[in-house]
Amino acid sequence: GGSKELLKSIWHAFTALDVDQRGKVSKSQLKVLSHNLCTVMKIPHDPVALEEHFKDDDKGPLSNQGYMPYLNKFILDKVQQEFDVLEFNKMCWTLCYTKNISTKQLLISDDDAFKVWCIFNFLSEDKYPLVIITEEIEYFLRKLIEAMGSGWSEEKFADYKLQLNTKKNCLTVWELIELLGMGYFTKGMNRQTLSMGINEVYQELILDVLKQEYMMKKGHKRKNWTERWFVLRPNSLSYYICEDLVEKKGDIILDRYCCVESLPDKEGKKCLFIIKCTDKSFEISASDKKKKQEWIQAIQTCIQLLRLGLPSPHREARLRRRELRQRQQAEEDNLAERMKQLQVANENKQRQLEAMRKVLFHAQLTQCHTQESLSRHVVRQQMEEQVAQKSSELEQYLQRVRELEDMYHLLEEALEDERQAKQDEESMRKLQGRLLEEEATKRAELEQIHLQQQRALSQTVAEKQELVAEQQAKERDLQAAMLQLERLETERQGALEQYEEVSKKLERAANKTKTWKDKVAKHEGLVRLIQPGHKGPQRITNWGPASFTDTELELRKKSWQEKKNQGDQAQ
């Protein structure tokens, strides 16, 4: 496959050197072309081989029939080491584009035209002169319009197909570049969008870039997270400092033993997934859930293709499209061949019939001559029988021809049904692909829900344990409080008993005091009676001297006065 694509690029360069378009190029120009090819493809120069190969044709120019075998034998078969395919393509492009097209009048730059040229080489048929057929033009335009974020217009392409009919349903590379440069399918879009669209399709089909984006990656040594520009190709996932691809930081080599899995959120990072390789694993964080799912799907597809030993998705798709076209072509050729055979058989029968008619005519003449010797009636009868026989034979033959034609129509219908079934199968395959993607998305969502449930469950368990602990603590506090209350109750009971005891003691003391007071009062009276008298002149009352103190006497006086007053009032 690779050398076929290299040959296509060289064919463009060779054709550009063929100025008169006679399929001939001078030997000196071929030497220059061969020298340039050897330089770019890192092959030792061998001018002697070129002289040897073309020694019989020393005088005039050389034909491409002679150069192609030389190319295969002395250049393509000697490629040993890896060489820069981009540089090789640029060299062939430089030789051919200035002679064929002027990008000044077009909406696209020289660089974009070069990318379209490379895409043409990838999608064109493996036949010379190189052309791209309607189906592949549609495939490319659909991809481009999708990359530009616009909608595909079926009517517009149907109109364009009618125009293509006048060009044998195919385009040369320069016609394809012009088609894009004139903006027939990209009206209303600016040049920058068109340029970005061309670049995206070029990256996928030519550079094998299946997906690219900024994501976070966890380091292996320092375990820190850093942003990197990731580029997915069929057998590797490379990561760079940024999208200019100048400084590559590493490659994750994909093989049949790798696997990719979703991871739950951790370390403050979300939308995580892990790529497990035989020697180490890589943890990556996408920008959102949708992107994470897309990346997992894309990497899984690569690993699946590696396990099946298949090429990258777009190469596999191109192979399938070509195989389908070849099958349809073979069926059409087969049908045409059958038709041809039927026609030939028909013509043979017609010739046989013509010969029979002539024989009949001669027989009739002969029989006319022998009429005299034979009875007219018998001759007519025989002739009628012969004519009837020939007529029935002719009728049978025509019937067979009609049957063959019916069979041919049925065959055509069956082929049409088969073609339709193939298209349905293709759409079913696409539907299955989409369902698989949806299933993967659903699985991821379920996984997410499961993780949330797990988290919720563990949270609930933790809360439950906390509540139980809290309840136990409260029960312990309650028991302590109850014990304290009982102790206080006992103490209060004791205090009450003590209080009653003290009250009784107090009562007893009070009674004692009372008796003692009475006794003291009596004693005081007695004491006073026997007290020594006052040194001053003693009062002498009816009760004898010193019976009352002055105070007591005052009191008695007062009460007498009151009684007296009351008596006066009564009168």
Question: How would you describe this protein?
Answer:
The chain is α+β, with helices and mostly antiparallel strands. It contains 14 helices and 13 strands. The protein has helices at residues 2-17, 27-40, 47-53, 64-75, 85-100, 110-123, 134-147, 154-165, 173-181, 191-205, 289-308, 313-369, 376-529, 550-570, and strands spanning 24-25, 62-63, 132-133, 170-171, 211-218, 225-233, 236-240, 248-253, 259-263, 272-276, 281-285, 540-541, 544-545. Strand 6 (225-233) and strand 7 (236-240) form a beta hairpin. Helix 7 (134-147) packs across helix 10 (191-205) and helix 12 (313-369) packs antiparallel against helix 13. The relative contact order is 0.04.
Summarize, please:
It comes from Dicentrarchus labrax. The protein is of the alpha+beta class and 571 residues long. The chain has helices at residues 2-17, 27-40, 47-53, 64-75, 85-100, 110-123, 134-147, 154-165, 173-181, 191-205, 289-308, 313-369, 376-529, 550-570; strands spanning 24-25, 62-63, 132-133, 170-171, 211-218, 225-233, 236-240, 248-253, 259-263, 272-276, 281-285, 540-541, 544-545.
Rounded to an integer in angstroms, the radius of gyration calculated over CA atoms is 60 Å
Poorly predicted tracts of residues: none
What structural class is derived from the secondary structure elements? alpha+beta
Number of helices: 14
- Estimate the global geometry from the Cα principal axes: elongated
Describe the largest sheet.
Answer: 7 strands, antiparallel
Count every beta strand, where a strand is a DSSP E run of 2 or more residues: 13
Fraction of residues in β-strands: 5-15%
Q: How helix-rich are the residues, as a percent range?
A: 55-70%
H/E element order = HEHHEHHHEHHEHHEEEEEEEHHHEEH
Average pLDDT number: 84
**End-to-end span in angstroms?**
162 Å
Strand adjacency order, main sheet: 8-7-6-5-11-10-9
Pfam families: EF-hand_SWAP70_N (PF25530), PH (PF00169)
Coiled coil: 314-519
GO molecular function: DNA binding
Organism: Dicentrarchus labrax (European seabass)
